Amino acid sequence: MSGHSKWSKIKRQKENQDAKKGKLFSKLAKEITIAAKTGGSGDINSNARLRLVVTKAREANMPMDNIKKAIARGTGELPGVNYEDIIYEGYGPGGIAIVVEAVTDNKNRITSEVRNIFSKHNGRLAERGAVAWNFKRRGVIIIKKSDKEEEILDVAINSGASDFEVDEDEIIIKTEFEDFEKVKKGLQDFKFEIKEADVNLVPDNYTEIDIGTAEKNMRLIEALEELDDINKVTTNMDIPEQILQKANL
User: 3 and 217 in contact (C-beta within 8 Å)?
Assistant: First the structure.
């Protein structure tokens, strides 16, 4: 999981930048709307996807009024834009697998934009299923490392965690999708400091690449993430340590 550990740090930096630019609430509102629409309910108790994204929105200090309006647009109680989920699969420089998750009201526009960015950065879009086989939706919980490391791991494993990794300053806990909320609650009950908790696509296998290829892929991914309709970008590259040093991570 070393690749994920490194990527999660870069992803958090990007989310912080989005928050400063005012993009984060807009993206969360789209996620909430489509979760309410596709989950068949605006009730977070019966709609697991909606519950997860509303929790994320609250943690980002999104105003409750914004959250309620986004839910109402998804359930049809308020008029709004008709969003849909789209997943793109492709290859970056060096054959790195990339999965792009979008929430959009204009499929033709975003498809054209994504294709152009892949082409401009020496990548290419792939057919459905070409790279997704290597990714599985899992829960990832990141906890600040402390002298309670053994206790944290015991609680996580007893709550249903499937894997974990310990690096210099974090403990990364991985769960199956259906066990995510149970493991998160188990850790919260013991008052451990959770830095991040989310459900994401996680690759089964990572690909090691040199720093030059990594930088090319980072530029491709950053360009994709600048698009307003892009929700998440996931890759299977194992990021060289030099990239982290450049990013001060």
Answer: no
pTM: 0.87
Tokens 């308020």, located at residue: 78
Helix 64-75, helix 23-38: angle, nearest 10: 40
Q: What is the pLDDT of residues 21-37, one digit of tens each?
A: 568 888 999 999 999 99
pLDDT average, residue stretch 219-243? 89
pLDDT at 7: 54
Sign of CA dihedral 130, 238, 117, 227: positive
